[in-house]
Structures are given as C-alpha cells and as structure tokens.
Amino acid sequence: MRKRGQGEGSIFQRKDGAWVAQVDRGWQNGRRVRETLYAKTRADARAKLTAALKAKRDGLPIFDERRTVAAFLSEWLTAKRASVRPSTWRRYEASVRLHLLPNIGHLRLTQLGPADLQALYADRLAAGLSAMTVRHIHALLHEALGRAEAWGFASRNVARLVQPPRAARHEMSALRPDQARLLIETAHGDRLEALYVLALTTGMREGELLALRWSDVDLDGASIQVRASLQRTDAGYDFAETKTARSRRQISLTRTAIDALRRHRAGQAADRLRVGASWEDMNLVFPNETGRPLDPSNLLRRGFYPLLARAGLPRVRFHDLRHTAASLMLGRGVHPKIVSEMLGHSQIAVTLDLYSHVTPTMQREAATALDMLLSAGSSGT
C-alpha cells in the first residue's frame, strides 16, 4: 500500500487493536496541532479520516468525538454572531447560558439523543417557562444541531425527532375605536404626540418609529419610508436594517398624522434652540431631549404608561398600538393585503392568522352586503 502524501493524514493500528486516524492541522497558537480519531476497524478509521480532511479543506473546526454540547454551542455562537442582529445574538446567548448549558451542556455532542431534548423541555416547563419560550429554545437547538450535522460533528439533527410543546394561543390586546380616539385626544400637546399618532395610524413597530429620520418623511407627499429599526447593542444603540425586504416599505400618512408631525417638527426646532450646542443632530424624528436616540424604557416609563393613566385606559403594551392599528383597519374593511403591506409582514397569511378575531366581523359584513345586493336585484324584477 502506497505511503500517504503530505497533508493526506495517516491511519495506523495500536498494539491494543484500536485503529487511529490522524490529520495534521498545522500550527495553531504556537504549537503543532494534530486531529486524532479512534475507530474499531480500519474502514471506520478511513471514513473518519476522509471526513476530517474535508473539514480541514472547508476550514471547519477540528472534529472531536469528546466534544461536549457546551463546547459546540460556544463555537456555534461565535460563528453565528456575524450573521444576526446584536439583539438576536444576545437572546441566543442567554438561552444557551441559562437553559441549555446547565441541562445538556455536559453531554457529548455525538451522544445527544431525542430523549435528552424531551427531558430538557419538560424540565424547563416545570421551572416555569412558557410553552412559547420552550419552542424558541427548540428552534435554536434545531438550527444549531443542523449546523453540527453539516459540519460533520453529529450524524443527525436530533431536534428533528422531538416535538416541542404546543404554545397556548393568547388573544392580543387592542384598543377599541373610542379608546384609540381618547388616547390621541389625551396625547394632544404631548412632546411625543406624533409618535403615538403614527403608531396608531401606521402600525409601525417601536424600533422602526425610534429609528425614523426626517429624510424618511415626506409630509407634502403624505408618506414615510421605513428603512431601519433601533436596536440596543453592547456598545449602545444601532440603526439596523429592517429584517426583510417586506419590512422596508412606504406607508401613506393620514391627515391626523401629518398635522401631528408638523407640530412635532416645530416643537423640535424650539428644543434645538433651547439646548443649543448640546444638541446632537442625528436627524431623528423622535430623539431624546438632546437629539440622541430615545431609550425605549424611558419612552414607556416616562411617556407611554403615564399617558395611558391620564387617559384612564388599561395598561397595554406599546406593541399593542400596532395591533390596534391593524384591527381598526381590518374592522373598517381595508383589504388584508394592504394591511399586511403597511405592517411589513412577510406574507398576507401572517396578517390573517394574527388578526383572525377580526375576520368573522368582516365575513358577516360581506354576507350582509351580498344579501343586500342580491335582494335588491330580485326585488327589481
């Protein structure tokens, strides 16, 4: 049998009968690194050598049969960091640290089985996590273990073999039309009146509103462009692109919103004169008192919740203003596709699923309209 060439690795049998495959990984951190794999037969050793050489060519980490789930998840988080938003990565990291490492981190990746994940989910539910949170953990594991399979670290993605708990469907909170009108009336003259009006009339997300710049606003053309979303990072705040192409959208403005924005722009000009050189011009529509990005927690504690209290309204989430906008539009007969485009949903099915509580009313109105049309036609003959 010919001698293997430089970089092709080696296979040999130890005195105890075990087969060993080795691949030279070159110099790393000042020392020569060899990847060593063990097998019961020469054929198994050859298969492992082939996989290790491919991983080396592809620039993948060293395969190690002793690699734990904790070690792999650390590598996966490092690789994942460059491809997701900082807020998303922080959520992944917290899930791994708080829920995965204490429960399955000690297990070898190659030995992780469906029963281990099923036990993990049951343990987290017993600890008080919601079914939806456990489903998020399952989705994270499904993606991470899929990468382990692609890298050759695991023979299968065991998350595919496990059914996550069914999430309970919660009805969202949305203001009634009279409550929405009361909120707008109470907000009149408030420093952030235009913010609340836009939330109720466009359905924009909080991060999208806080990232909005005056260059995105066309008051004469009665429209705005949604291009970014404000995200909290370790270094402060970042203006990240919206998640999808559908999220980057143009929205038509109501007359109420245009009037509120004009008053807001005049008030902001007065703020800039008062602050003087301390104002940091970032061209934001809704900055804080010095022109910097508005802290979402301050928006809630100092602005939104006190506004709800003054109006005598229930303490809903700020995100519920988005639900209110969608419910009001659908309830008034606006086509779901238009509502979906305004909200920036990836597809109309998302809109119809989220606001299914509105569709029965729409169907009744459609049936009544058809009844009137057909009845009028028959009475005229």
Brief sketch in words of this structure:
The chain has a three-stranded antiparallel sheet, covered by helices on one side. A three-stranded antiparallel sheet has the order 4-5-8, with no helix packed on it.
Give the key terms:
51% helix, DNA polymerase, domain 1, 3-stranded antiparallel sheet, mainly alpha, 8 strands, hpI Integrase, Chain A, 381 residues, 3 domains, 12% strand, disordered N terminus
Describe this structure as you would to a colleague.
- The protein folds into 3 domains: 10-57; 69-161, Orthogonal Bundle (DNA polymerase, domain 1); 181-312, Intergrase catalytic core (hpI Integrase, Chain A, Orthogonal Bundle).
- The protein has helices at 42-57, 69-80, 86-104, 114-126, 131-151, 177-187, 193-202, 206-211, 255-275, 296-311, 320-331, 336-343, 348-354, 359-379; strands spanning 10-13, 19-28, 31-39, 217-218, 223-226, 228-233, 236-241, 249-252.
- The longest helix is centred in the middle third of the chain and has 21 residues, at 131-151.
- A 3-stranded antiparallel β-sheet has the order 1-2-3, covered by helices on one side. A 3-stranded antiparallel β-sheet has the order 4-5-8, with no helix packed on it.
- The protein is elongated, with a radius of gyration of 29 Å.
- The protein is mostly helical and 381 residues long.
- It is built from 14 helices and 8 strands.
